[in-house]
Design a protein that fits this description.
40% helix; 92 residues; two-stranded antiparallel ribbon; Histone, subunit A; mainly alpha; flat
């Protein structure tokens, strides 16, 4: 990777977008680090592809319909109810 892949102006621009203040020495440090990161991505491009099975199979079971609880049974153990609904604590 060439050293001009990331320049200090780009780092300053990204820092401004992120609303992060950077000193000049930090800009230089991040410029080098960003260039290193981009170089790592180029290394990943060199990794050979792995053969895999192309046909995927749904391993989930089909949905089954069942009878549900009626409102009275559902609310029976609720600590507090109001107008046929569960009542929870107020959130401020």
């Amino acid at each position: 990777m060439s050293d001009d892949a990331v320049n200090p102006e780009e780092v300053r621009h990204v820092a401004e977008l992120a609303r992060v203040g950077l000193a000049d020495d930090e800009v230089d440090q991040f410029t080098r680090q960003f260039a290193d990161i981009l170089e790592y991505f180029e290394t990943l491009d060199e990794v050979p592809e792995v053969d895999r099975e192309a046909d995927l199979v749904n391993v989930m079971r089909p949905d089954e319909t069942r009878d549900s609880l009626d409102s009275e049974d559902a609310l029976r153990n609720a600590p507090e109810t109001e107008d046929g609904y569960f009542k929870g604590p107020n959130v401020s």
